[in-house]
Design a protein that fits this description.
The chain has about 220 residues and is an alpha+beta fold. It is built from 7 helices and 9 strands, in the order E-E-E-H-E-H-E-E-E-E-H-H-E-H-H-H. A hairpin with a 6-residue loop joins strand 6 and strand 7. The longest helix has 19 residues. It starts with a strand and ends with a helix.
Length: about 220
């Protein structure tokens, strides 16, 4: 497999004498051997993250390697400028019945939510996370890392990819795909796979590794629609 690496670390091509000033990355080129040297911790950390991203992609047999920066995936935006951000829009839309809002109408505080991951019912918004069905890091590592920031923000706030769920289960899921994590609520598992498929269809640039795709297809094949 040939790994295509996209590591967002800009190294200048202009050689700078070893004893000279450092560039914006915190390093410079050695005029003697052409090698690049880090002189700041931030530069060394960037190289470390780059190496880790390549190693992770290689081990997972992915064709892409991107450094993941969560801040690049701006989420909980107020898309329609009504003072209610995406998290609270989802809580409002996915509540079963009446909800209680903050005095300014910008936040959801109480309601009734049937969490599909656990099958349990919750009444406090603070007990819920809004889950990205396809996690942001998963998307980053499977082709979305090369998207412009505007598209990353679109993806991070797209209702098709969002579910109000038990916060503990959302944390246990992390950035895992369905080959590594499935909702404990067996009755929801096929629907969960279908939601993954819907998002993958809309964002077709996202590509599973071959090993992930084999598991996903087998999981889908076991479902009856």
């Amino acid at each position: 497999m040939k790994l295509v690496a996209f590591l967002f670390l800009t190294i200048p091509t202009l050689a700078i004498a070893h004893g000279g000033s450092v560039d914006n990355n915190g390093g410079h080129n050695d005029h003697k051997n052409g090698g690049y040297h880090c002189h700041r911790a931030s530069c060394a950390e960037q190289f470390k993250r780059s190496d880790a991203a390549v190693e992770e992609a290689t081990n997972a047999e992915r064709n892409f390697s991107y450094i993941y920066r969560r801040e690049d995936w701006k989420h909980w935006s107020d898309v329609d400028n009504d003072c209610m951000n995406t998290r609270h829009e989802v809580l409002k839309d996915q509540a079963d019945g009446q909800i209680k809002l903050s005095p300014d109408g910008c936040y959801v505080s109480m309601g009734v939510w049937n969490d599909p991951f656990s099958g349990k019912t919750f009444t406090r918004a603070s007990d819920l996370d809004v889950d990205h069905i396809i996690p942001l890091k998963w998307a980053n590592d499977h082709g979305g890392g090369e998207w412009p920031k505007a598209k990353k923000e679109e993806f991070a706030n797209d209702p098709i990819n969002l579910l109000a769920v038990d916060d503990g289960l959302n944390k246990s899921k992390g950035a895992k795909g369905p080959n590594e994590w499935m909702p404990p609520n067996y009755a929801f598992r096929c629907e969960y796979l279908r939601l993954w498929l819907d998002v993958l269809t809309k964002y077709s640039e996202l590509q599973m590794a071959s090993s992930e795709k084999r598991v996903f297809d087998r999981q889908l094949g076991a479902c009856k629609y």
